[in-house]
Amino acid sequence: MDKLLKLLSKNAQFSTAEMAAMLGEPEDYIKAQIKEYESKGVIRGYQAVVNWEDMDDSFVEALIELKVTPKKETGFDEMAQMCMAFDEVESVYLMAGVYDFALIVRGQTMQDIAMFVAKKLSTIDGVLSTGTHFIMRRYKDRGMNLTTPDSETDERSQFL
Amino acid sequence: MIDYNKYLNSNIRSVSPSGIRKFFDIANEMEHVISLSIGEPDFQTPWHIRDEGIRSLEKGKTWYSPNRGFSDLLNEITDYYERRFALTYNPSEQTLVTVGGSEAIDLAFRTLVEPGDEVIIPQPAFVCYNPLCVMAGGTPVNINTKNEDNFRLKASDLEAAITPKTKLLILPFPNNPTGAIMEKQDLEEIAAVVIRHDLLVLSDEIYCELTYGGRNHVSIASVDGMYERTVVINGFSKSYAMTGWRLGYALGPAPLIAQMTKLHQYGIMSAPTTAQYAAIEALRNGDRDVKHMRDEYDMRRRLVVDSFNDMGLSCFEPLGAFYVFPCIKSTGLSSEEFCTRLIMEKHVAVVPGTAFGDCGEGFVRVSYSYSLKHLKVALERIREFLKELNNEG
Fold first, then answer.
1. How far apart (Å, rounded) are the C-alpha atoms in residues A3 and A14?
2. To probe the interface with B, which of A144, A148, A153, A160 has the most B CB atoms within 10 Å?
3. pTM of the predicted model as reported, rounded to 2 decimal places
4. CB burial of residue A15 (10 Å; 0-12, 13-18, 19+)
5. Residue B306, min C-alpha distance to chain A (Å)
6. Using the beta-carbon criterion (under 8 Å), do A154 and B35 form an inter-chain contact?
7. Count of domains in chain B?
8. Residue A158 pLDDT more than 90?
9. B31 lies in which domain range?
10. For the segment B192-247, what is each residue's pLDDT rounded down to a tens digit?
11. What's the CA gap between B96 and B251, in Å, rounded?
């Protein structure tokens, strides 16, 4: 795996000078490389991993399973495009297994999501069935532990 | 009042407790200290390894192991040395599983050293060699490795330290605290001297998996004529982040290992059973973890070295272990003054180089066994500290 991308995907907050030092490359090279990744669309953006549970303005998310009939010409892509178009839909994945798509859908309340699924998703032409799984709690997200407070204590003893 | 001194072994009494204690006490009592002083991995033992330990307990494997260690583990250890370093050891005669590398070092000293024997110990080095040598009745003879030699042991310095009483050379590379390594050519030069003077070598290879810049660790036992003169010490603490499991081993000529096994048998019985089951898993399926941790350390290493040089503290590039050893002479402070002021003024703990021998004066040991996030904060504070020092001067 590209070391620069690996580093950025874990923590995008290092300066280019720091990344250059860590990877043993000139800073100019790192800058150029990032620019190239951004322009080619390899890097799509930079986001914080937020533990929303601690915030007042929280929301609900659900994982929605979708079974669909693929279109003759466009296969699953057209269906994916239709799902992606909704603001409520955070993520769309094509799956191997008993259903075709997994969607992460976000709403203010469970009711919001239920209505979205009933009115918007299941009515799309070609959708055979849906299954809704509400996310109750996030323990780990994108490799990060969301349960322990950030300032973990160091349990190691002093030895040389 | 009983005068206990009259009961105490004078040899043991002559060894002073680790001098660094009082410094650590300050660090421990102070709140919000950002430490860069700890000498063990920050990683937890990889889960699959821990899980094997747990599984062994669930299966009720709670008995002693054979004195030398479980044969499965002995086989894995010798396989490992074969595949990593092309060294062949017989698992049943040349291998001994111990309670950490430290026990193996102690056993080697006590097996080899007699009163009057001189043992050559390069410094700066991990703190245990001199005391263990003295407690075994030997006389440590220290050689100072130098910044300008990248803290490698020079054959000429070794030659100069040898007397008719010299019996053993300690070779602690990759080195704690300097991060220095010895490459094949360095070892060949050392080997020539060792063989000429008919010495033995104790090669402490506990950091063997932590070498950087594409340089693989080379064991002196693989140099011509040295296999029969070398006791290799290694363990699981650093490579697999298993410090608390207390598991190490010794490899070497059968007649030496046999005697060390006797000491181990009567003093210890056997190394921890649970740890041995976990270690078998580590050697069988842990290569990926080792690489992952090495890559992480390597990024931190580069960041830290780069930062120190950028701050104006010259820092030779360490190619092993997880320490950097910057020179702080430019500040005009002694190692201990530097560390004391840094902790009092900026609440950052690093270790004075003098903890690892007098020749560590003018240096501090900085451990990068911490998350990148932690390192960044600490380095920033050190930068502020140096700036303030400069303004004073």
1. 14
2. A160
3. 0.90
4. exposed
5. 6
6. yes
7. 2
8. no
9. 4-45+288-392
10. 999 999 999 999 999 999 999 989 999 999 999 999 999 999 999 999 999 999 99
11. 7
